[in-house]
TrEMBL record:
SUPFAM superfamilies: TPR-like (SSF48452). This is SusD/RagB family nutrient-binding outer membrane lipoprotein. It comes from Segatella copri. It comes from the Bacteria. Keywords: Lipoprotein, Signal. The keyword Signal applies. Residues 1-21 form the signal peptide. Gene3D superfamilies: 1.25.40.390, SusD-like, tetratrico peptide repeats domain (1.20.120.840).
């Protein structure tokens, strides 16, 4: 497989309508098209896979905390406050699709030069790249609406430098047609893809066909607010398609892009093998969501979030120092009290390890500014007596060290290499203790679409068609699939405290438990009233939406889109209520990202201006809040419920 080789082709000229950051890409891809007219399409396909990244670093660093908070399904590490409406710079979601589209255009140009026999051999690679391009195109339209696509990235092959913006509606129609063409190619006996040249599906054309067919459901659910009849027709066609849809864990689009780190060019190839090299710490679990998952014995909480740093040794360290520990942690601790008044940890109570290590960040308004001590364990830097009451010190009384009480988004599920199991264990050691173990670089396994997602969409459409029996079948299957998929992803990514990462269990050997999915856990979860497919029709539909968002926990854009189109979590829910803030009412929460200012020298100025005008969008500065972001909706969002209003059905 050539996925770890840089195979650049005629990707010059690119899109001059992109942001300044994109211009740097042109230098990288500025290769003479005539130099590769006899190139290998399979090599270009490998480059398309390398470029395929729906949610790269800047999405998590800049945008994820905003999206989780706007959706009501997560928190920024800075807490709930005015910052909810403070936009950071836009990440690179608006132009990620161009990275694959450039390569696809080079592939299409090369493909057109082949004779018919050659075309049959190479068509599978072209259609595979097309599926990935469509996938990324959806993400581009989710927050920005119309984008240049049909005429885009063709300048090197006789096309225009000023491509028109295509409406979301026209793109959905185009992509549905193209996906049908992809399915036809993947199911043709004349088309082949070599397994060694395909890390996505291993040359399995049937799997590619299911992927393309299931991807149509992503479009269908985004159409529901505008054209529910057409959306239902798409879903029905997916369900009945002879190629099938993603319905087992083996159908999941889950793969790694490479194995061995290369020398040189660290910022390109290696950062695709390991996803990326930068860190991010801004996303944490909220109390409502993590409590919901723990209370209902959802094992996925252990894959989506990290254990907090309060293992039994840390607790004993506080007891030995004569310090109090957080009451919400101590309620799960069985201890004895000696004659000297000091406590001794005996064992965990309640649900026991690993469950007792998962807590969310408080969602109370401006808790991060409180200096009374009410929220001291969440924001210790605000507490005047933190050094004496909240931190442990070494034997010399120096080196104050605090321990995080809440769970953060699990970086190891999102990034390879940088975040090791050792670093998580080392952070949960006493000031005078050291504990290290050897870890290797971890190529990242990414999950791009799953059978669980597909089944949840089908459950949603079944409920919208008032077929509750069918909806239950899909819903129950989806939750089991989701648990198994994320268990596999945690194992593949060697997440801290997975049983096969043996070094994690040497420090708190007696009390540390693994996070692996255990026998019977899925059944136990499904017995919970809030997870079982029971209740009124409205409650069943709500449960589907909640599970869609939980299944998307590691994917901020999908969480945001699902919350926006569904109106869940609802402020008035009896299942998973959304936290309400009078300071940030629903009608002030953004539903899209800013357009960004248009430069006077931009050759696309007129086209961009007209495109935004046609959509009814005010041009506003990137990275700055404006109320129009909450009131001016993108086409696919028009008619959807307000934030937290619940379904209109």
């Amino acid at each position: 497989m050539k996925s770890n080789k840089l195979i650049m082709a005629a990707l010059a000229v690119g899109l001059t309508f992109t942001a300044t950051s994109c211009r740097d890409d042109f230098a990288e891809t500025n290769t003479n098209p005539s130099a590769v007219t006899k190139g290998e399409i399979s090599y270009l396909f490998a480059e398309a896979v390398n470029k395929f990244d729906p949610q790269p670093y800047l999405e998590y660093f800049y945008n994820a905390p905003m999206k989780y908070q706007w959706a009501g399904m997560g928190m920024s590490a800075s807490g709930a406050g005015e910052g909810i409406l403070t936009l950071t710079l836009d990440g690179d979601q608006s132009w990620q699709y161009q990275n694959v589209l450039r390569v696809l255009r080079a592939m299409e140009n090369l493909y057109d030069s082949f004779d018919e026999s050659q075309k049959k051999k190479q068509l599978g690679y072209v259609k595979g790249a097309q599926v990935m391009s469509i996938y990324l195109g959806l993400f581009g339209t989710d927050l920005y609406g119309a984008i240049p696509y049909k005429e885009a990235c063709k300048a090197a092959y006789g096309g225009t430098l000023t491509p028109e913006y295509d409406s979301v509606e026209s793109l959905y129609d185009l992509w549905l047609t193209q996906l049908d063409e992809c399915i036809a190619a993947f199911t043709s006996d004349d088309v082949s893809i070599k397994s060694e040249q395909d890390v996505v599906c291993g040359g399995d054309k049937a799997k590619w066909a299911k992927f393309a067919n299931s991807l149509k459901l992503k479009i269908a659910v985004r159409l529901l607010a505008q054209n529910p009849t057409k959306a239902k027709q798409i879903a029905a066609a997916v369900e009945s398609a002879s190629c099938g849809y993603m319905n087992t864990n083996s159908d999941d689009i889950l793969f790694k892009k490479g194995v061995n780190k290369l020398t040189g060019d660290d910022g390109y190839i290696n950062d695709r093998i390991y996803h990326w090299n930068e860190g991010f710490t801004g996303c944490v679990g909220s109390q409502s969501v993590i409590n919901f998952m723990v209370d209902n014995k959802d094992p996925r909480v252990r894959f989506f979030y990290t254990k907090n740093q309060w293992n039994s040794k840390i607790i004993q360290g506080y007891y030995d120092a004569g310090l109090e520990i957080p009451d919400f942690i101590e309620k799960n601790v069985e201890f004895t009290t000696g004659a000297d008044g000091k406590k001794k940890f005996v064992k965990w109570k309640g649900m026991g390890e690993p469950w007792v290590r998962y807590y969310g960040l408080t969602e109370d308004w401006n808790a991060q500014l409180d200096a009374t001590g009410k929220y001291k364990w969440y924001f210790p830097s605000q507490y005047a007596n933190a050094d004496k009451e909240l931190y442990l010190h070494n034997k010399e009384g120096k080196n104050p060290q605090g321990y995080t009480v809440y769970s953060t988004l699990n970086n190891m599920m999102i990034i390879g290499r940088r975040y090791s199991s050792a670093s998580q264990v080392e952070a949960a050691t006493l000031p005078d203790d050291t504990y290290t173990f050897t870890t290797k670089d971890r190529p990242w396994y990414g999950l791009y679409m799953s059978a669980a997602e597909t089944n949840l969409y089908l459950a949603e459409f079944a409920m919208l068609n008032n077929d509750e029996a069918k909806a239950k079948k899909y819903y129950d299957n989806a939750l089991a699939l989701s648990c198994n998929t994320y268990n596999t992803l945690a194992k593949d990514n060697q997440v801290a405290y997975y049983s096969t990462v043996t070094g994690c269990f040497g420090y708190d050997r007696e009390n540390e438990k693994p996070i692996d999915l255990q026998d019977g856990e899925i059944n136990n979860m499904m017995q919970s009233d809030k997870y079982a497919f029971t209740g009124t029709a409205a409650e069943k539909l709500e449960k589907i939406y909640i599970q869609e968002m939980l299944n998307f926990t590691l994917y901020p854009n999908e969480v945001f889109v699902t919350a926006r189109r569904s109106g869940y979590p609802s402020y008035n829910s009896t299942i998973l209520p959304r936290k309400s803030y009078s300071e940030v009412p629903a009608n002030k929460i953004p539903r899209r990202f800013p357009t960004g200012n248009i430069s006077q020298t931009d050759i696309m100025k007129g086209i961009k201006t007209e495109a935004y005008k046609a959509q009814g969008l005010t041009i506003t500065t990137s990275g700055l809040y404006n109320e129009v972001l909450a009131t001016e909706r993108l086409w696919q969002d028009q008619g959807a419920p307000a934030w937290g209003a619940g379904s209109a059905k």
